[in-house]
Amino acid sequence: MPARLLPALFLLSFMPLCAQTNEDDKTLRVFIFAGQSNMVGSDSKVADIRRFPPFAGLGNPQPAVRFTYCLGRENKTRSDGWVPLQPVNNIVGPELSFARKVTSRIKAPIAIIKVAAGGTHLGGDWNPDDPIGFKMYPLALQAVRDALADLDKRKIAWRLEGVMWHQGENDMFNEDYMKNYGANLKNFLACWRRDLGVPDLKFYLGELCTKTIWGMDLRPRMYAISVGQRSVAEADPRAEYIPTAHIGVEIGGGVGLHYHYGTLGQLQHGENYADAYLRTISIRQGPRRTFPKGWPYAGKQHVNLFILAGHRNMEGERAFTQELRKLPRGEQLAADQPAIAFKYSLGGGVIRSAGWEPLGLTGHYDNFGPELSFGASLRKEGIQNLAIAKFTHSGSQIIDWTPEGSMARSRHLYPRFIAFVKEAIAELEMKGHKVSLAGICYHLGENDMSFHPYRREAAKRLQSIITQSRKDLQRPGLTWVLSQQPPTDDKRVNNVDVVADVAAVAEGDPHTIHLKAFDLPPQEKKLVIDTAGVIRLGELIAGAVAKP
């Protein structure tokens, strides 16, 4: 055994090696956060937290949480010991929201050790056996050892609780690193467990976000890394794959696409890790939402089922419940609508309802989509006995919804979408109702409009989805509503008239409606629609389907 390992093994030898539990609320629970730029928090800003109401206050220190860090490559920023958890260098990392959520649910104190640097490779910098470049693995290992030794010096009882890992984008640019990412990650986990003397140390492996520009123009390479990550998580009972493709992504200049999460995404990323950890120690989300007066439809009543589907804005990336309540009719829309049954699958299945619920707020990141105003508007139009099923993935592109999909098979949504619709129909029929599939309302992929190859193919791909869905659902006259916000206005993509292309699809099909949602309230950012805009979008879609 190498001599460098002996001090760590001696130091940690007294630690319990059992899986995490929530029984001990005295021992300090220590978490390691490690990775590259999307773990650092690149392109986030503390000042922007105020723009995202669910995370208000996270720019302030959290004095009850111990924090030590080493960030960066050539010019490293170090805490030089334990400090209260707080933003570093005016940027936002996932540890901020992680800590707040975890400490709100458990009594035990927590501490976070963070070592991260942008542009680093698992195959090189983080390689435990032969680190090169910035030699991140030995740096991180020493940082962890030093932090734990300091706790011992202070006579603070602690236990290592888990490693939050987010990395992989840079390995996809090196053919050897990309090809061997799974094997390298497996070795990485084994070395951490060996070198820290904790053979059952839990790892939470953050998915690379497919909503970024790299998720489109580098789809095969991103997919290759994800295959490696998933293979490790599937084979290792103490490793968990944490989906992040559905979280917020920074809006860049020009066409709007970016390759970093930015402020909102970082904060949601931290909550993803927190939710995964809380599940590990058997702390679940709140109680299931139920109908206060029972199932809303009598006996064998006929039910009109509407399907809502789409990407960022149908999911409601930047529509927040806190802002909703401040708007006219906001409190009314925020309240449950128990006359409408609601079923949902968000983020490609990451967040799912437990069956049917009353239409209302789901609690998902404190976001909501057009379904609230859509349902209320249809009721106002006199449409009764309506149910809504919503299937979205804000990190998808239209190609993922096509029957063929792409080579990235794990991102293929079409089979899951059709299965979701069939399931919704079957569940209502099992309750004795005759079901009319009143229409599929699909809001076009926002990112597709900003990437020339996808914008060029958007209408053709939509046509294939519509055609095959009617066959698979055995409804040749199924109504489709294609809602489209003003597409990206930039010289790099403007030579594709995607509005005319989509209009042509609808003009040739009496059962397809093209809804130009061009009179939305002014938006702050490209691609994404805010709270008022999402409410308006729901009203517009309802108006389109309610027309005779």
Question: Which terms would index this structure?
Answer:
548 residues, Rossmann fold, eight-stranded mixed β-sheet, 16 strands, globular, disordered N terminus
Fraction of residues in H or I helices: 25-40%
Give the count of helical stretches.
Answer: 18
| Rounded average pLDDT | 95
CATH topology of the largest domain: Rossmann fold
Structurally, the number of domains stands at 2
> Uncertain regions: pLDDT < 50 for 5+ in a row?
1-18
> What's the N-to-C terminus distance?
78 Å
**What is the top-level CATH class of the largest domain?**
Alpha Beta
Strand count? 16
Shape: globular
CATH homologous superfamily descriptor of the largest domain: SGNH hydrolase
- As a percent range, the share of strand residues is 15-25%
**Taking Cα atoms only, what radius of gyration do you get, to the nearest Å?**
24 Å
Query: What is the CATH architecture assignment of the largest domain?
Result: 3-Layer(aba) Sandwich
Going by helix content, strand content and strand pairing, the class is alpha/beta
Largest sheet properties: 8 strands, mixed
Protein architecture, described:
- There is one protein chain.
- The protein has 2 domains: 24-280, SGNH hydrolase (Rossmann fold, 3-Layer(aba) Sandwich), CATH 3.40.50; 303-546, SGNH hydrolase (Rossmann fold, 3-Layer(aba) Sandwich), CATH 3.40.50.
- It contains 18 helices and 16 strands.
- It has helices spanning 6-12, 37-40, 94-105, 136-153, 175-179, 181-196, 214-217, 219-235, 262-280, 312-315, 321-324, 330-334, 371-380, 398-401, 414-430, 452-472, 498-507, 531-546, and strands at 28-35, 62-71, 77-78, 83-85, 110-116, 158-166, 203-206, 239-242, 303-310, 337-346, 351-352, 357-359, 386-392, 435-443, 480-484, 512-516.
- Strands 1, 2, 3, 4, 5, 6, 7 and 8 form an 8-stranded mixed beta sheet that branches. Strands 9, 10, 11, 12, 13, 14, 15 and 16 form an 8-stranded mixed beta sheet that branches.
- A hairpin with a 4-residue loop joins strand 10 and strand 11.
- The protein is globular.
- Mean pLDDT is 95; it is low at 1-18.
